[in-house]
C-alpha cells in the first residue's frame, strides 16, 4: 500500500519542478496521432481509452513529455524504459508506479493534480463514484487521463483493428516498422487512421518505399 504522506511529498516535489501550464485546453499531441483526436489533440480535463496496444497508449504521452510536462504511468508492470525513451518520453519527468494494487485510480486522481497527463491500467472495473471523483479532478486541474483498457464514457476511444510488420523479405531481414490500424470513436463519430512506428519511434510519414507487409499480428 502506498502511504498518503508519500503521495503528498511527491506532489509537492513535482509542483516545485513543473513549469506553469499555459491557459490552453490543448495538450501537446504527437503529429502522427493528431487525426485520432477531436480538434487534433488531447484536451485538458478529458479522458481517453486505448485498447489493444500499450505502445500506442504510451505514445500519447510523448509530445507533452518532450515539451517539458510531467507524466505518470500507473499499473503497467511491463513498462520498458528503453521503449518509452524511444517514443520520446522524458524518463526524468515520468512518475512510474508499476504495481499500485487496488489504489491505481486513487493515485491517478492524486497525481492528476500535478501531472499533465496520466496513463492508467486499472486492475479492476472502476466504481462509478471513483470515476466521477477522478473526472472532477481532471477538469479542475487541467490534466488528461489515458486508460489502457475500459473506462466509462471517455471523451475519445482508440481501438486497434489491425497490426502489420514491415521489413522481412522471404524469410530474412529485420522487422523495421510496425503499422497499426486504429479506430477512433468520439463526438465526431467513428474514424480509422494508420499509425506507424519505426525503431520504436512514432512516424508521421508514410511507410518506407518498397517495404512489404510481412505478417499479420493477432490482436
Uncertain stretches: 19-23, 206-219
Helix-residue proportion: 10-25%
CATH superfamily of the largest domain: P-loop containing nucleotide triphosphate hydrolases
> What characterizes the major β-sheet?
10 strands, mixed
**CATH fold-level topology of the largest domain:** Rossmann fold
CATH class of the largest domain, named Alpha Beta
**Per the principal axes of the C-alpha atoms, what is the gross shape?**
globular
Order of helices and strands: HEEEHHEHEHEHEEEEEE
Coarse structural class: alpha/beta
Alpha carbon gap, first and last residue: 33 Å
Task: Explain how this protein is built.
The chain is of the alpha/beta class and 219 residues long. 25% of the residues lie in helices and 29% in strands. It has helices spanning 4-17, 54-59, 62-66, 81-87, 104-111, 128-141, and strands at residues 26-27, 42-43, 47-51, 71-74, 94-97, 117-120, 144-148, 156-166, 177-186, 189-198, 201-203, 213-216. Mean pLDDT is 84; it is low at 19-23 and 206-219.
